[in-house]
Amino acid sequence: MKKTVQIFSMLLIALTVLVSCKKDTDPADRDFFVGTYRGTVSYSKDGTQINSTDGKVTVTKVSDTYSFFFGNNIPDITGVKFQESGNTYISVGTGVIGITIDASTLKIGVSNSNGTWTANCTR
């Protein structure tokens, strides 16, 4: 009986290792695009214009929504949802259409009641 429990324990450990080391995860399922992108950014609203050729945008994800945090006193864009298209994600929803992102490139062209944002960034 003691030997049977020992063999069963070893099999259980081996199964756990095999399951946790599974390698068929699609890279598109990971959040490779969460991080900081640098490049040209701009924002305008009601006569206020902010432009920077040395801007940055930090992308974060909480649950299924993304946020874009700009430097240079540019307001953030939050609560963005995406639809997958290959390894590129395209923003969907009211007021935030115009964002595409992948592991190395971020492009923003959003205009809504809160202003107009543009970004052409890489990392």
Question: Can you tell me about this structure?
Answer:
It is a single chain. The chain has 123 residues and is an alpha+beta fold. It has one domain (27-122). The protein is 15% helix and 53% strand. The protein is built from one helix and eight strands; from the N terminus they run H-E-E-E-E-E-E-E-E. The protein has one helix at 2-20, and strands spanning 35-45, 48-62, 65-70, 77-85, 88-92, 99-101, 105-112, 115-122. It has an eight-stranded antiparallel beta barrel. A hairpin with a 2-residue loop joins strand 1 (35-45) and strand 2 (48-62). The radius of gyration is 22 Å and the shape is elongated. The N and C termini lie far apart (59 Å). Mean pLDDT is 82; it is low at 22-28. Residues 1-19 form the signal peptide. Keywords: Signal.
Provide a quick synopsis of the model:
By secondary structure, the chain is of the alpha+beta class. It is about 15% helix and about 55% strand.
Q: How much is the radius of gyration in Å?
A: 22 Å
The domain tally reads: 1
Which structural class do you get from the secondary structure elements? alpha+beta
Strand runs, count: 8
Arithmetic mean pLDDT: 82
Count helical runs: 1
User: Beta-strand percentage?
Assistant: over 45%
Specify the biggest β-sheet.
8 strands, antiparallel, barrel
Coarse morphology: elongated
* Oligomer type: single chain
Helix fraction, binned, reads 10-25%
SSE run? HEEEEEEEE
Which spans of ≥5 residues are poorly predicted at pLDDT below 50? 22-28
The neighbouring-strand order within the major sheet is 1-2-3-4-5-6-7-8
Head-to-tail CA distance between termini: 59 Å
